[in-house]
TrEMBL record:
Free-text function comment from the UniProt entry: Phosphorylase is an important allosteric enzyme in carbohydrate metabolism. Enzymes from different sources differ in their regulatory mechanisms and in their natural substrates. However, all known phosphorylases share catalytic and structural properties.
GO molecular function terms attached to this record: glycogen phosphorylase activity; pyridoxal phosphate binding
Taxonomic superkingdom: Bacteria
Annotated catalysed reactions: [(1->4)-alpha-D-glucosyl](n) + phosphate = [(1->4)-alpha-D-glucosyl](n-1) + alpha-D-glucose 1-phosphate
Family annotation (Pfam families): DUF3417, Phosphorylase
Modified residues (N6-(pyridoxal phosphate)lysine): 621
Domain DUF3417: 13-126
Keyword list, A-Z: Allosteric enzyme, Carbohydrate metabolism, Glycosyltransferase, Pyridoxal phosphate, Transferase
Cited InterPro entries: Agluc_phsphrylas (IPR011834), Glyco_trans_35 (IPR000811), Glycogen/Maltodextrin_Phosph (IPR052182), Glycogen_phosphorylase_DUF3417 (IPR024517), Pyridoxal_P_attach_site (IPR035090)
Essential cofactor(s): pyridoxal 5'-phosphate
Species name: Streptomyces roseolilacinus
Protein name listed in UniProt: glycogen phosphorylase
Length: 881
């Protein structure tokens, strides 16, 4: 029989145990070992059954056990200490509160930042993530909390989350969508003063409405607001808007993204009004899914009397956009007619011109489709500051979106990069933390993991080889037990009887070199590259003196049959009785599994098609536990690879190499690395029985790579490089300044066709010059209806290739001749200035005119530039000796 109604019955805790409720409702427990250990002590068996979720645990503890705990003085002392520690964590001054900007001035720090993301991976107890984007977002919140950064997270609450994965008997991926009850999760419904739930509403075509409640997850110091459309006021279609992460068709996804962006801003306003939380000055869009937040903020300003163009400038000033995809196929794109139906009269934002809305997302550049609404394009047009998530990805993004800034070389496209990081307290095994704490003290170890600072990591050098090797073996042994338990459960789910599974007791060996590979399964991540030569892989797995064992996990998107075929191919290989004790595939990869997998692997494998991995943070998590990376130089590994702490898989990514040939070459390189370099180093033991060179690589990984891969480092960079400048820009653009800037841009765009570089003169006629000499440039430009105050005239100089293309270029501003007294008789303005020849070899220069205004974030902001015609230049290149 099925129940006709469902309730959540919460326990009534005795007064001495009331602090348990506060500890359970703040997700800091997910990265605070002492709090987790306290909950485990409440009921060890119940803790295991609850999957390490304190809210579920407290819902199952018997009244008798609660009574025992009220009389347990030792437990009560631990409870008091944990509650006091949380209070100190929430109220104390941290990095952000102690930071100064410039010379003792902290007034530029934003009062608050709103961080929008379609998914958040904070803890397995709140399964609202599918992969790297969500885990990164969760780590961003946790690191911001540790640093005291006043962040407000904004997302959606998916009632089915992402899917749970199992396998059929023949290895085909099966998806399951369990119903999630927010009342049974560490969430609190946001309520009005009268006790009723806060409701956010959007207008839909045809007189319909989309309503949502707001749930709050407290992530340490950071509130995470999650909008939920499963409310009674909605019709059946609207109730299902937040059913699944990345589910449904185009309109379903559009409604999700409108609710996230537009509804999310409204939820933030309601939350700040109810709690007195400072209003955000900076809005950070984590990928394009939340891009509609900019439209809602424009609507807020236009409702207060600001015109659209001025509101656009004000919104751009305080917006940061982070792109995570290096391929156009990874961007959400909607039919422009579908978007048009959902905006304007009779729908959402009725007072905002729908034509202006569509223009923000149209692909108006060469090669784009003007009938498509591109969410990343809108994100870039609505943000004054944008970034990729690794140095290489920043370069890829600048090329990918260069069409939005015509006339500029890709390296000048205003997209910077901040390399992702991972939240060490979440991903580092407690055993690793305890080893560090014994060397430098618990508080210093905590600071090293959350805030960073290489001087705190140097203490790794003091740890003796035997202690490191013992730790690594212990973690490997824990992984072996975890794998056997999960493999047994998976085979039972696949239909195997207990009598068939005795072989699982011999799966993996805690003394064998262990390689891990776990991630989502799109084709570019190449789950099955290791299977290109199966005989050779078997030889590596079964080597008589240097065997290798591999743990593999990963989910394919439910609609990706190609990815599912890759999973089945891997599963069938791992099912082979000849090798199944040395290679396993674990279904249902998620945070709980990952926390065992990363610490237990000696080597973390990553072999994407370069440069399609934007960052890839799984190898960072392994590194923080002393795992070595074996990876294609893509994403973060491209900038931080060092042979002292890992190996680089050579790539064959030339333009003439076909895909099959490339996979064969790179798979062969992978086999050779494992066979000739990785395995020998692991098994090469000294007289003391220890692999000294391997242990030294582990030590270098922890001391040198560790501080770089921290989410604390990442969030500090966001604050200093993006949030503080965005807050300054936001404050400088009051309504008058915004109108001024908007009017100036309109005038510049109208007059720009009349701007030209007419003539360039140089005082050097020879094609060879001496290093350190100076050229005197004299340039005549036509400005039309503009004045010298509207522009900057620059010389651009650098090395040149055989086609005269500039590389490593630097810019030098030129000044109006005669102090800018006026144009010559032909109406041209004369600019002049020196150009120092500071590099040897082929050297060249050009000149250009850019719009210039004190409120512009970058010279390329408008995408306007005037360059000389061929006939305008005299002697454009020199060879330096």
């Amino acid at each position: 029989m099925k129940a006709i109604r469902r309730f959540t019955v919460r326990p009534v805790l005795p007064d001495p145990l009331r602090p348990l409720s506060d500890l359970a409702r703040n997700l800091r427990w997910s990265w605070h070992a002492e709090t987790r250990e306290l909950f485990q002590a409440v009921d060890p068996e119940g803790w295991r059954a609850a999957g390490g979720d304190p809210v579920r645990l407290l819902g199952t503890v018997s009244a008798a056990r609660l009574g025992e705990l009220t009389r347990d003085r030792r437990f009560l002392r631990r409870l008091t200490a944990a509650a006091d520690d949380l209070d100190d964590y929430l109220r104390g001054r941290r990095w952000y509160q102690n930071r100064t900007v410039g010379e003792g001035d902290d007034t530029d720090l934003p009062d608050a930042i709103a961080y929008f993301s379609p998914e958040f991976g904070v803890t397995a107890a709140l399964p609202q993530y599918s992969g790297g984007l969500g885990i990164l977002a969760g780590d961003h919140l946790k690191a911001a909390s540790d640093l005291g950064v006043p962040l407000v997270g904004v997302g959606l609450l998916y009632r089915h989350g992402y899917f749970r994965q199992s396998l059929s008997r023949d290895g085909w991926q099966q998806e399951h969508y369990p119903l999630l009850d927010p009342n049974e999760m560490p969430l609190t419904l946001l309520r009005r003063p009268d006790g009723g739930p806060v409701r956010v509403s959007l207008a839909l075509p045809g007189g319909r409405s989309l309503h949502a409640h707001v749930w709050v997850a407290q992530v340490g110091r950071v509130p995470l607001l999650m909008l939920d459309s499963d409310v009674e006021e909605n019709g059946p279609g609207e109730r299902n808007v937040t059913d699944r992460l990345y589910g449904g068709g185009s309109e379903h996804r559009l409604l999700q993204e409108m609710l996230l962006g537009i509804g999310g801003v409204r939820a933030v306003r309601a939350y700040c009004a109810l709690t007195d939380h400072p209003a955000p000055e900076v809005f950070h869009t984590n990928e394009g899914h939340a891009g509609f937040l900019g439209l809602e903020r424009i609507r807020e300003l236009t409702d207060r009397g600001t015109d659209f163009d001025a509101a656009l400038e004000a919104v751009r000033a305080g917006t940061v956009f982070t792109t995570h995809t290096p391929v156009a196929a990874g961007i959400d794109r909607f039919d422009r007619d579908l978007v048009a139906r959902h905006f304007g009269p009779g729908a959402e934002l009725p007072d905002v011109d729908v034509g202006r809305v569509l223009q923000l997302g149209r692909e108006t550049y060469p090669g784009g489709d003007p009938n498509v609404f591109n969410m990343a394009v809108m994100g870039l047009r609505l943000a004054q500051r944008a970034n990729g998530v690794s140095t290489l990805h920043g370069a890829v993004s600048r090329s990918m979106f260069a069409g939005l800034w015509p006339g500029f070389d890709p390296e000048e496209v205003p997209i910077t990069s901040i390399t992702n990081g991972v939240h060490a307290p979440t991903w580092v095994a407690p055993e690793v933390i305890r080893l560090g704490a014994r060397r430098i003290g618990a508080q210093r170890a905590e600071d090293a993991l959350s805030v960073g600072g290489s001087q705190r990591w140097d203490a790794v050098a003091e740890i003796d080889d035997a202690a490191i090797w013992e730790l690594r073996r212990d973690l490997r042994e824990q992984l072996v037990h975890e794998v056997r338990a999960r493999l047994h459960a998976s085979w039972r789910e696949r239909g195997a009887g207990a009598a068939e599974l005795g072989w699982i007791d011999g799966v993996l060996d805690p003394d064998i070199l262990t390689i891990g590979f776990a991630r989502r399964v799109p084709s570019y991540k190449r789950l099955t590259l290791m299977l290109r030569d199966r005989d050779r892989l078997r030889e590596l797995l079964l080597h008589p003196t240097r065997p290798v064992q591999i743990v593999v996990a990963g989910k394919a998107h439910p609609a990706d049959d190609g990815g599912k075929r890759l999973v089945r191919e891997m599963v069938r290989f791992a099912d082979d009785p000849r090798v199944r004790h040395r290679i396993v595939f674990l279904p249902d990869y998620g945070m709980a599994m990952a926390k065992k997998l990363y610490p237990g692997c000696d080597v973390w494998l990553n072999n994407p098609l370069r440069p399609l991995e934007a960052c890839g943070t799984s190898g960072m998590k392994a590194a923080l536990n002393g795992g070595l990376n074996l990876s294609v130089r893509d994403g973060w590994w491209d900038e931080w690879y060092d042979p002292d702490f890992g190996w680089s898989i050579p790539t064959a990514d030339g333009p003439t190499t076909d895909e099959d040939r490339r996979d064969d070459l790179e798979a062969n390189a992978l086999y050779e690395l494992i066979e000739q370099r990785v395995a020998p180093r692991f098994y090469d033991r000294g007289a003391d029985g220890l692999p000294g060179r391997w242990i030294e690589m582990v030590r270098r990984t922890l001391s040198t790579l560790g501080p770089k891969v921290l989410a604390g480092r990442m969030v500090r960079e966001y604050v200093e490089q993006l949030y503080v400048p965005a807050a300054r820009a936001h404050r400088s653009l009051d309504p008058d300044a915004a109108r001024e800037l908007a009017g100036w841009k309109s005038r510049i765009r109208a007059a720009w066709p009349g701007v030209a570089v007419d003539h360039v003169e140089v005082d050097e006629t020879s094609e060879v010059a001496e290093l350190g000499s100076t050229l005197a440039l004299r340039v005549r430009v036509t400005l039309g209806d503009l004045t010298p105050e509207d522009v900057e005239v620059q010389a651009v100089a650098g090395r040149v290739d055989t086609r005269d293309a500039l590389a490593d270029a630097r810019t030098f501003p030129l000044k109006p001749a005669g102090g800018g007294s006026g144009p010559d008789q032909q109406g041209r303005w004369v600019y002049e200035g020196p150009l120092t020849l500071d590099r040897t070899g082929p050297f060249g220069y050009t000149v250009r005119v850019l719009p210039a205004h004190r409120l512009l974030a970058a010279g390329a902001d408008l995408g306007l530039v005037a360059l000389p015609a061929e006939s305008a230049a005299e002697g454009a290149g020199v060879l330096l000796r």
